[in-house]
Amino acid sequence: MTPNFQQSNLQGRARRYAMVLDLLFNRVGLVGSLKTAHRGARHLSLGVRLTDPTHLDKALKLAEPLALHAGTENVLAQRAGGLVIYQFQLAQAFWEYYTRADVSGLAVGLAEARRPVVFDFDPPHALVAGTSGSGKSETLKSILLALLTTYTPDGLGLVLIDPHRDYTDFINAAHLVMPIAAEPGEIQTALLWANQELAQRKAQDIKDGKLLIVAIDEADQALSDKANLEAAKNIAKQARKYRVHLIVSTHKPLHTDLPGILDMLINRFVGLVSDAKISATLTGHAGLGAHKLTGKGDFLHIAGAVLERFQVAMACRADFARLPRAEIAPAVVQPLDLVILPADKPIGRPSLELDPVIAAQYFWRNPDSISIAMARELFNLSRSGHDLHKKFVIEFITELRRLRAAHQIGA
Ligand SMILES: Nc1ncnc2c1ncn2[C@@H]1O[C@H](COP(=O)(O)OP(=O)(O)OP(=O)(O)O)[C@@H](O)[C@H]1O
Ligand SMILES: [Mg+2]
Question: Is 296 near ligand 1, meaning CB less than 6 Å away?
């Protein structure tokens, strides 16, 4: 009886929200036709096709008045699939919760009408963001379970960085390529090892190696060390073609917190955030309103043109019980690898060494006639590389002149 009662009650609500929508559309002079009505885990959504699409902004701005008039906590408005979608938050009694038993394969949760939201490596690196308690760790666990139940340990390896020791259910999971890293030393080793693996794949041009996932929870803590951040950045920058992927979870998802790396984590899972500005930065859509989500697994998935609100399917004991287990040896990092990641030099720049061929070019052309732009264009030099070569050649010429003058005086 209960589901039927809920269902008819929900239909009544949907009708009421549609009436409120109609009323406010009339009041502000908007014209549109109702095209879709769906249930999400915590909202009812109504999709409207505007007769005049240039009225989009006006239609999106109707979210707050709609919430007020409909007597619901929040309305989120967004454009999707040619429609303006209004998501009316449901009262808690109507909320649905999903477990991994509700999904299959690579699905992480369910969007409206129970459509699965699937984890994908395109874009290659993912971000899970939200305030404390928004459900980031549960989301990361659900993503990891999706991956670990889809791929065999031969097809996928996992490096798991967990400073808060929240992932004890994954201890000795057969996919782990080293024990879960929690202590600062272990975290550093784990990231160095992943970079070492990447460097090896690069050197040997291995593009069909097994997938390597580097999952980092509490990234603000795990990557607060500069060398760790550089190591993660290095993976984000060049790992795609070598099948090494980052999944980074943090409650501090700003550029200042994750400098130089946030823009590369564009497969985004965004839960409740603290304000509209953070929402706009993370979602790339001003007005989307991740700060109005209900928390605890209510997430937006944004990847390229895809934008979906969904409820994360939580993992239960039984899901973990089914994971294959194995004893795992600690990672060994060659001391040499410490050289790969200089702590205070940006990775990817040519190292600052004097190149005799470039120095000869400076000598030949006259060092004062070479601008930074030319140095960049002709020799792929940074400003400091240019300064180094210019200074060297000027000193070289000065010394030559001095020697010549001394020789002439002597003669
Ligand atoms: N998908 C979900 N479905 C139902 N409840 C959830 C879901 N995700 C999280 N919760 C609830 O919210 C609580 C907090 O979730 P979680 O630990 O994942 O938050 P968090 O964002 O990682 O927080 P913190 O930043 O403090 O680590 C969980 O213990 C659970 O009770
Ligand atoms: Mg957490």
Answer: yes
In the chain, what is the greatest distance between 2 CA atoms, to the nearest angstrom?
Answer: 114
- In the chain, % helix, strand, coil (3-state, to 5) comes to 45, 20, 35
165 torsion bin: left (phi>0), alpha (psi -120 to 50), beta (else): left
Domains 2-93 and 97-327 share a fold: no
Q: What is the pLDDT of residues 246-289, one digit of tens each?
A: 999 999 999 999 999 999 999 999 999 999 999 999 998 877 89
Cα distances (Å, whole numbers) of residue 290 to 78, 130, 206, 308, 311: 11, 9, 40, 11, 13
Ligand 1 in contact with 312 (CB < 6 A)? yes
Out of 3.40.930.10, 3.40.50.150, 3.30.980.40, 3.90.1700.10, the CATH code matching 2-93 is: 3.30.980.40
DSSP 231-291: HHHHHHHH-GGGTEEEEEEES--STTTSTTTGGG--EEEE---SSHHHHHHHHS-TT--GG
Residue 45: name the closest of 21, 25, 69, 9 by CA.
Answer: 21
Q: What's the pTM value of the predicted model, to 2 decimals?
A: 0.82
Ligand 1 centre to CA of 297 (Å) is: 7
Q: Of all protein residues, whose CA lies closest to atom 27 belonging to ligand 1?
A: 132
Our answer on whether the CB atom of 138 is closer than 6 Å to any ligand 1 atom is: yes
How much is the mean pLDDT over the chain? 91
The domains of the chain are located at 2-93, 97-327, 356-410
User: Mean pLDDT over residues 158-175, rounded?
Assistant: 97
Peptide bond into 330 cis (omega under 30): no
The length of the chain in residues reads 411
The domain defined by 97-327 folds into Rossmann fold (3.40.50)
- pLDDT, tens digit, 9 for 90 and up, residues 173-206: 999 999 999 999 999 999 999 999 999 999 999 9
Distance CA 206, CA 198 (A): 9
Spatial distance between the Cα atoms of 256 and 253, rounded to a whole number of angstroms: 8
Percent of the chain residues past pLDDT 70, beyond the cut: 93
Q: Is 134 in the pocket of ligand 1 (CB under 6 A)?
A: yes
